[in-house]
Amino acid sequence: MTAAVEVPEEVQPGLYDITAELYHQDPVPGGSLSSTGARKLATECPAKFKYWSEHPEPPKKEFELGTAAHTRILGDGPELVLVDAEKWTTNAVKAEVAAIRAAGKIPMKRRDLDQLDAMVAALWATPEAAELLEPDSGVAEQSAFWCDHGIWRRARFDWLRHDGQLVDYKTTKSANPVDLPKVIHDWGYHQQQEYYLDAGLALDLVDPERPFQFVLQEK
């Protein structure tokens, strides 16, 4: 017999349109388990998980291009700001870049914006990806919270289609089919897929007949 679960007043099971910052801060009183947290518990140990949950890692600069691609492709994310200097080594430019990041925005060099423009053009020129992520086909960056046998869980969907299909957009160093199994294993995408499907099914958001779909794009 499963014990009754008391739902916190601040959060009810459901889908929420909240910022990424609030999602990662975890608005559930007492905490909730994300896909990343579950992976850390499974592959490391409870002590490391506890430390990680209490000392969240700051955003990494090397992930900024991927985050910028999410903003441009999905239409939701931090503002992109051009810092029109080839080298970011002077104190003035360093201060400008730091201020942009402190404001929750992404500083970008001209060449990085050009690379991003080329990525966006390539994605929309690919029929399968363009159809899955067509702007009117769904909503971006939705946060799901649900209670599973007394454990609060959470997930943040890249793209929830109106037809009940989940799509997750990833950038990667290599989209070569030979390299993808290692990419999927190293980043735990197979685990994330099942975790997000759990969320969609628990909240009756997804069509069980429509498989979860990744869109992986080489940077």
Please explain how this structure is put together.
The chain is 41% helix and 20% strand. It is built from nine helices and seven strands; from the N terminus they run E-H-H-H-H-E-H-E-H-H-E-E-E-H-H-E. Helix 5 (91-102) links the parallel strand 2 (80-82) and strand 3. Helix 4 packs across helix 6.
- Read across the widest sheet, the strand sequence of neighbours is 1-4-5-6-7
Structural class: alpha/beta
* CA-CA gap between termini: 50 Å
Estimated share of beta-strand residues = 15-25%
Counting DSSP H or I runs of 4 or more residues, the number of helices is 9
Count of structural domains = 2
Contiguous runs where pLDDT drops below 50 for at least 5 residues:
1-8
The mean pLDDT is 90
Biggest beta sheet attributes: 5 strands, mixed
Helix content: 40-55%
Give the SSE layout:
Layout: E1 14-16, H1 20-25, H2 35-43, H3 46-54, H4 64-74, E2 80-82, H5 91-102, E3 106-108, H6 110-124, H7 127-132, E4 138-148, E5 151-161, E6 166-172, H8 180-187, H9 189-202, E7 213-218
Parallel strand pairs: 2-3, 6-7
Antiparallel strand pairs: 1-4, 4-5, 5-6
Observed structural traits:
single chain; alpha/beta; two-stranded parallel sheet; 9 helices; 20% strand; disordered N terminus
Brief digest:
The protein has 219 residues and is an alpha/beta fold. It is 41% helix and 20% strand.
